[in-house]
Amino acid sequence: xxxxxxxxxxxxxxxxxxxxxxxxxxxxxxxxxxxxxxxxxxxxxxxxxxxxxxxxxxxxxxxxxxxxxxxxxxxxxxxxxxxxxxxxxxxxxxxxxxxxxxxxxxxxxxxxxxxxxxxxxxxxxxxxxxxxxxxxxxxxxxxxxxxxxxxxxxxxxxxxxxxxxxxxxxxxxxxxxxxxxxxxxxxxxxxxxxxxxxxxxxxxxxxxxxxxxxxxxxxxxxxxxxxxxxxxxxxxxxxxxxxxxxxxxxxxxxxxxxxxxxxxxxxxxxxxxxxxxxxxxxxxxxxxxxxxxxxxxxxxxxxxxxxxxxxxxxxxxxxxxxxxxxxxxxxxxxxxxxxxxxxxxxxxxxxxxxxxxxxxxxxxxxxxxxxxxxxxxxxxxxxxxxxxxxxxxxxxxxxxxxxxxxxxxxxxxxxxxxxxxxxxxxxxx
Length: 429
What we know:
Layout: H1 2-32, E1 52-55, E2 57-60, E3 66-80, E4 85-90, E5 97-98, E6 103-108, H2 110-175, H3 180-206, H4 212-236, E7 239-241, E8 246-250, E9 258-259, E10 264-280, H5 282-288, E11 293-298, E12 305-313, E13 324-330, E14 342-346, E15 354-359, E16 364-366, E17 369-376, E18 379-384, E19 386-391, E20 394-399, E21 406-408, E22 426-428
Parallel strand pairs: 1-22
Antiparallel strand pairs: 1-21, 2-15, 3-10, 3-14, 4-6, 4-9, 5-8, 6-7, 8-10, 10-13, 11-12, 11-14, 12-13, 15-20, 16-17, 17-18, 19-20
């Protein structure tokens, strides 16, 4: 009897436990699957997210990008002694502004003066020798002409006598007093005499003064003249002149010092135009890559701006500075810029600071890449963006987003092409 009564009780307890487990499972499923008014075609319900967006707009990202630079001379020239000698006088001092061609130092050289006088004497000697040779040649020519004239006169007189003799022989032949051989002989003598006379006249016309000795002397004269010019030029080198206009920064000399030809006397730094030199990072070179001039100002005086020509932008990194060299060439007629000053170079201008911007918190980082979600209708598009300058909370966008597009500012857990509730979109300002 007792066993029969226990069986119904066990069945009821088992039923109660099964019901408890069932209610627990139902409660767990209700937490995992939310109930939504939106339904798919298959009847499975899912949530549609709401997003916050902001328009990508153009605005000032910050002040113009600047980089410090050093003011340097555009080029340095060594002042070199072209001739040796003793320093006679020093006309300029270190730090003076000098002009091209201005005398800086005067040298004195006894040896140079001696060589010049010697060359001058060689020229005078050669000129005198040529004069004597020409006079001698003139007299020889006159004597030759005189002798030829006498020979021509004698031959002409002889020709007259031969003509008479020939005519007489012909007459004798006609009357039988001379034979044919005698006539022929007289004719030959007459013809030879005429030929000799013609030869003497041609010789007289062609006679010229002998120039062999004069030609040799003229060569000697030219050599002497060249040597004289060289020594005259050497004498001008005793005045050491500035090769270029600029500032004389070195002149370690004292009067009485002896200088050898080729010795360095000083240094002149050319300061008009002057150079501003800076070293840029790889990102900074992008701002100036296609520019021909940039603005600058002297450190501490931002109101006094000027412009300089971009004379050099290195395409390879400097191994010492680990950066790219930039040179500005600046006109400096008023000498306001001096080597050693510091200057600020503006790599961008005010207009270049107006760029398309988005909030930094709208950017999603995936490794080295950056992405944003852009609202397109009722879906969001995941786009890769190229970023530029940052000025919290703004970030410059170089590519990937256009001005006016709506960028999601709460991109967490979004996926590309994911559908959102357009009625729930909150636009931020």
